[in-house]
Amino acid sequence: MHTATGFRPHRVVVLALDGLLPFELGIPHRIFGRPRDAQRRHLYEVVTCSVRPPGPVETDADFSIHVAHGPEALATADTVIVPASYELGPLYEEGRLTEELAAALAHIRPGTRLASICTGVYVLAAAGYLDGRPATTHWADAEHFQRLFPQIKVDADVLFIDDGDVLTSAGVAAGIDLCLHIVRRDHGTAVANEVARRTVVPPHRDGGQAQYIHRPVPDPQQATTTGARAWALGRLHEPIQLRDMAAQESMSVRTFTRRFREEVGVSPGQWLTQQRVERARHLLESTDLSVDQVARDAGFGTAQSMRQHLQAALGVTPTAYRRTFRAGSSVREPEAASRKQALGSRA
Question: Beta strands 64-67 and 160-163: pairing type?
Fold first, then answer.
């Protein structure tokens, strides 16, 4: 971010609640603490605050943490992130904010971007930020969350939902997916991929959290769809038929489709589109190929087809995306005012 007086990093304020999960609290610091610009300046500044004056905050582990900032830090945030807590009390039981939490949230300025990890979504919901909007949370809490907040459109199948100025993620590690997505949205695929490499995680996970919901364990002797996915990734620029993917695993189309959805959480067609969108993003950022060439290399065939898919997935045209995220250009916010993306959602 640039101001009239010079460079200023985007400030991310993480709200630490009693009963928090240390792993989830650490995700924003790990992901947003890495990105730098061409001058090696940190693109984000991460600050942790409590709903109380500086002091200890209890975790769900056998230790507490000392938080150096009180709720006033929320007033300085460009983005507020609320990780999960196992001690939400009336929030979880009644969908009601405590006076202390309500007073803390009142510091947040209008227009601040909001995000939650796992059950942190209960905070955003009780505060009214999600009324009439889509949201997700850990699949194990989704049914309870929907009953408590019927005005919210809950999708328990996805890893995260981007609804423009409010983003929500599924449980635990899905917070990594969400934070990487925010970096990708702010600064492009190349920056997000570098953060993912340093964190030793995939820059983009296939499918949604439906694949993690308990179901009978498949026979270990049964074939998987891993080989077919690797085969398809090596030829995204070519037309790929479902029967061709199924043939790679010597399965019928019906069996392959069922097994693929069990393993990945989305259909083969949806997965292919996701991979082609990611390929197009990379080429638009890192090469001088024309839009027509990018469309062909990503497997969309025509620029019009690619334009439609990028518009649906990202809310921007290929040309606008390249202008915003072109490697080496000045960092700018995406031009789309409101983009909605639910990775792994049904098309």
Answer: unpaired
Best CA proximity match to 224, nearest among 275, 258, 271: 258
Amino acid at 294: V
Q: How far is CA 28 from the centre of its chain?
A: 12
* 252-273 core/surface letters (b: 16 or more CB in 10 A; e: else): eeeebbebbbeebbbbbebbbb
Choose between 212 and 47: higher pLDDT.
47
Q: How many CA atoms lie within 13 A of 343 on its CB side?
A: 25
By C-alpha distance, which of 254, 282, 265 is closest to 343?
265
pLDDT 10s digits, 175-207:
999 999 999 999 988 898 899 888 888 777 765
pLDDT band at 157 (very low <50, low <70, confident <90, very high): confident
Amino acid, single-letter form, for residue 134: P
Measured CA to CA, the distance from residue 10 to residue 207 in angstroms comes to: 29
Angle between helices 189-199 and 174-187 (to 10 degrees): 150
φ/ψ (deg, to 5) at 67: -105, 125
Distance, in Å, from the CA atom of 335 to the CA atom of 326, rounded to the nearest integer, reads 13
Global pTM? 0.73
Start-to-end C-alpha separation, the chain: 34
User: CA–CA separation, 209 vs 158, rounded Å?
Assistant: 5
- Decide if 256 contacts 271 (C-beta within 8 A): no
